[in-house]
Design a protein that fits this description.
Immunoglobulin-like; mainly beta; about 5% helix
Length: about 170
């Protein structure tokens, strides 16, 4: 995260296989925002996997559905997400690097607290795409259990954020 601007962050998610879909809350359960990162094809464990096809990788800022009948993440329209060309896969996991930008994030615990609690959810449910280009999707979380993680927000801030963007594979 930039040290002086709290409206964007770089996500580096390591998704174990055979899962292909991961979501996490943005600091606590009361936050309206959740991050969804997913691969739109089935990816299984392989001894010598082919390179990750970046056209199959999606990352989006989402909000939890207000319909309590089924937990689902819906895309948040005011966010810009960019997947890094450095995203990759190994025999047992996918490493997804994504830049997330949205001015609505400024007051979220993930970007403001020193030690926010994140709830990570791995899902086996395939995304339900909402557009013909398969760029935005709803992600159903039924059958998934959250894992609580304490995030070190202080260590995640960088004084030279432009350099970090470059290292993560983004144009500064």
């Amino acid at each position: 995260m930039p040290a002086d601007d709290r409206s964007e962050f770089i996500l580096n998610a390591s998704i174990p296989l055979p899962y292909g879909f991961v979501a996490f809350t943005m600091g606590n359960q009361s936050s309206p925002f959740q991050m969804a990162a997913f691969i739109d094809v089935a990816v299984t464990q392989e001894a010598n996997p082919p390179p990750l096809n970046l056209s199959d990788v999606r990352s989006q800022l989402s909000t939890q559905s207000t319909d309590d009948s089924l937990p689902v993440l819906q895309p948040f329209a005011n966010a810009t997400t960019t997947v890094s060309p450095l995203s990759s896969r190994t025999s047992d996991r996918v490493s997804l690097i994504s830049r997330v930008q949205a001015k609505e994030l400024r007051n979220e615990p993930l970007l403001t607290a020193l030690h926010p609690i994140l709830n990570v959810v791995f899902s086996m449910n395939a995304p339900d795409y909402l557009d013909s280009a398969d760029k935005t999707a709803e992600l159903y979380l039924n059958g998934s259990s959250p894992i609580e993680v304490v995030f070190n927000g202080g260590a995640a801030k960088f004084s030279n954020y432009s350099e970090m963007l470059w290292v993560a594979g983004f144009e500064a």
